[in-house]
Specification:
120 residues; alpha+beta; four-stranded antiparallel beta sheet; two-stranded antiparallel sheet; 2 helices; globular
Length: 120
């Protein structure tokens, strides 16, 4: 049976953050405090391509702090791509943990189709 799923992402899994960074060829995330234009933000810090300030991820709450000044200091599309890969990697981690197999297909519109085969 096929299902369409839409995900509102709360970023709570540090392993999936690291895997998403690796998959996108980004520097590994670091734990710390970032100085954003509007103040400080603590958590896992991810530096996105072309962004002036890093993204700070509070894995306890799932909240993300960033300052891209309406795309002037960083293309929001880079954050969207990171969040997409975070979701993909989180699904992969959970599927494997449960013994399922997973296949993935990148679609022309940029979305990702994932098929999970349950373990029998």
């Amino acid at each position: 049976m096929s299902h369409i799923v839409q995900i509102a992402t709360r970023v709570k899994d540090a392993a999936a953050v690291t895997a998403a960074c690796q998959r996108l060829n980004l520097a590994p995330p670091t734990q710390g405090t970032a100085k954003l234009y509007s103040g400080d933000a603590a958590g896992l810090l991810v530096q996105l391509p072309g962004w002036k300030y890093p993204v700070a991820i509070d894995t306890a709450s799932g909240n993300i702090a960033f300052d891209n000044f309406e795309n002037a200091w960083g293309d929001r599309g880079q954050l969207d791509k990171f969040l997409q890969m975070y979701a993909v990697e989180l699904v992969r981690i959970e599927a494997r943990r449960r013994g399922h197999t997973i296949t993935e297909q990148q679609l022309q519109d940029g979305s990702v189709r994932m098929t999970i085969q349950e373990a029998t």
